[in-house]
What we know:
The chain is 19% helix and 34% strand.
Amino acid sequence: LSYRFGNTETNETEWKELPGCQNVTRMECDFSSAITEYYDTHHVRIRAERREEVSPWSSIFEIIPYFIAQIGPPGIELQSTNGAIKIKVSPPEANQVRKMWISYLDFKYNLVIWENSSNAEFRSQSIFPTDIIDDLAPDTTYCLKVQATLPLDMKEGLFSPIRCVKTTRKAVSDLFCATNVRVLALNMKFHLLWNNRYKQHVSYNVQYLIGYLKKLPDDYSAKWLNVPGCENITDTQCSFSSIITTVSGFYYVRVQAMSEYNTSCLSNEVKVDPLRTNEIGPPGVKVDISDVLLHIQISPPGGSESEVMREHYDLSYRVLYWKNSSNNEEEIKMKEIKQTIGTVSDLTPSTLYCVKVQAFSEFYNKSSRYSEEKCIRTPGDEILPLVILATFVIALIAVLLVATPLVFALYQAYAKMKYVFFPSCQPPLNIEGFGGQLFSSPYMSTTEEPIANFSIIETVITEEVNQIDFKDYKHSKQSSRDSGNYSNDDDTSGSKMSEEMLEKEIV
């Protein structure tokens, strides 16, 4: 038997023979050299030939090279050093000129390691292209294999050939090494803590490495940096918040211990993924009462300075509120809100209500501790009459303030009109009797001002008329005296003397 293959990309009639796959007698053929586009669709067909006889073409087999290709095994290099195993992984196709998977940074590597013994236990873990495998027993042979994967494409490759290596003993005593290294992060404030078992003087340097450097196949051991402010310290804790410049990546931190004999020891590395390592602190809470509503004002965790908490966690708030009374069976009610301001209605008057709030992020599956309880008492029913009374008093004062100037203005206008059109002062009757020829001011006192003698000279007058006038005058004077206008003695004597002199002048 012999086989012939052909392929086409656009037109079924444009078939080409595959080099290296003509007149083969085996049941397989390598046509990798014919594949130039790994994401395009290819069609393959086959037929058999025997001398002059040719079979019909087979049905067309459709393939997309990238989707049907399998990831090959990676290359590995091992080195036993100071009780640990240093491993360096080469990506698949590392030695090939043409590569299907160009971005080697997309590869993830799975390690399977076990002791070379009859009752070995297999241990799996993820590793970087250059990594150190520790927590191993000294003077023990370990075997391992590595697999490359592409998680985004859900592809798993073939395992590398099994390699074995024997561990050594640690050359440096780890008595003064930092142990139990851990990260405490709250509201984007990061602290590294560790324990010290050494009784003598030890100083520490906290070091960090930017995470993406571990994804590179190059050796990163010389790229560790000291954390500012955490150099040559004797405390067993230090803040490294200053190096967290982005929340999209991740970091590695470790502690370098230095003894008084100028020997050093490195602790285990701790991975820091800022948004996942960080813990959410309790929010701040303020409560207030307005009418029949309980107002709750929430301050996000971290305060006004922590913009990262608000921007990246998409926080929600769980509000618990209840009546604080001697009855322990009072129901605790809960409501969840997205805003930092909430209200509670249907309150009971003269009742003490308490509130506490918890912040949480659904995406990161994180929640804070509850805030401190804040309590406030609702006003009682008796406040309504007080409100009504206060409203009435305020309205009355307002009316008085408006009405008083108006009444005063009307009264002044009335007094002026009455003074002008209806005066209260009238001239005495004794002056009115002379036809209004004589005038005496009503405002001047008659007791203090003496009456001057006067005479009337008439050129032509009859005795009869004078007598009539005199009688009328006496009658008028008598009426004035009877009316009481001239009641004191001085006025009486003055009037008599004036009458006698007037009578003589007339005669």
